[in-house]
């Protein structure tokens, strides 16, 4: 019996020692065992700010008619929209940032970031499809709500605006925080972004300016008068690029087999030529045929746009003639390219110009219009090497920018509708390969710029004479949340999940 107890005791020691060693050898010393709020913040901020790369980077700009694609027939170029992901997975743990903060002021900053991230993601989702889950969203872990109900688009926007107000308040009560790769945790810059983005949300609600609950004009006036907003290009919400893994410009040539396919559209080139705007020489390269025929690279007539509404076979034939303009080399040859913006000072200037033209605020629409054009030109000049390869000897120097802005100001229309068209058109030209879907959202809301539509090439089978106004709900929602989706579909679109159906903000 003594031997048995000795063996059992020895076995217990070995078992405990073995478990200890098992835990030790199965713990990765390079994997953190606790979560810091800065780690979560970095992931969340980059998810908000980054754009796709290679072909994915170019696809939104096919929809906004900035480029024509010459590889094959692209649905976005030919006005066909499929499903759109409305998942909130990218921010499902944003609320943990404040819980891991070491003091209340730091928690305020991280909560401010959480509310801004929520506002931006819910905005993207509702702008894509219409009604979405909002009040019940992201409650699977905390309240076991796995099948969230859909809220009306109006309620979603009310929630977005309120969350932006709360984000600004929390940032104002916060302190500098770690884990921010864009603004280095500067809460003043974050407040500027929050409020500038709120103005963007409000302008997208322009068709609802008389709604008593939304109070769009009152909110706009209050933010503009009382809150910090972008003051220059240094405030842009953008990602800068460098020669490091996963940090190069999204369309840089290395490991990018798609550089040969995009060519610049007539929608961009013809407008810039009309205005004799030197941004043309920074956006595009001259036509090889025109150069071979004796034109110089600093000649506006050496640049030839391609109509993106032509059939793919027609575009393919045009390309064979070498009479087209491809992207400026800075987009493919420079590892840093230019910073990619989600929201910029130039964008904000045009938003305020539009609000002034609509009579929402007592500001001069032409002054903000001119500020937006100047900001666009300065951004391009500041992020482009001053060599002939990239400027074609037509520099965007200070003298030219001042002259161009004055000329644009002198040509600013008198009528409110003319002013609206001019503002949205310049906002579009400033958004070349920037801002992702913003020009599309402006187009479907205002009808500007007046993009050419070719029913003969359109893939919009229900309404070939129109550009669709929404995406369809994703299959996952039909598979896992069908009863709630069906209710929302009946409420909005008479049960017809179709790309030409008008969502609430467009009515």
Describe how the helices and strands are arranged.
Layout: H1 2-25, H2 37-49, H3 54-63, E1 67-69, H4 96-99, H5 104-129, E2 132-133, H6 140-143, E3 150-151, H7 153-172, H8 187-204, H9 216-226, E4 237-239, E5 262-264, H10 266-274, H11 279-283, H12 288-292, H13 312-320, E6 340-343, H14 345-357, H15 365-382, H16 388-391, H17 398-410, H18 416-430, H19 438-446, H20 475-480, H21 482-493
Antiparallel strand pairs: 1-5, 2-3, 4-6
Low-pLDDT runs of 5+ residues are: 1-20
Strand percent estimate:
under 5%
State the helicity in percent bands.
Answer: 40-55%
Head-to-tail CA distance between termini: 88 Å
Give the C-alpha Rg.
26 Å
Sketch the major β-sheet: 2 strands, antiparallel
Mean pLDDT score = 94
Number of helices: 21
Q: How would you spell out the order of helices and strands?
A: HHHEHHEHEHHHEEHHHHEHHHHHHHH
User: Strands across the major sheet, in which order?
Assistant: 1-5
Structural class: mainly alpha
Tell me, what's the shape? globular
**DSSP strand tally:** 6
Q: Describe the oligomeric state of these chains in a short phrase.
A: single chain
In short:
By secondary structure, the protein is mostly helical. It has 21 helices and six strands. 49% of the residues lie in helices and 3% in strands.
Give an overview of the whole structure.
This protein starts with a helix and ends in a 14-residue tail after the last helix. The protein is globular and about 70 Å long. With 507 residues, it is mostly helical. It contains 21 helices and 6 strands. Helix content is 49%, strand content 3%.
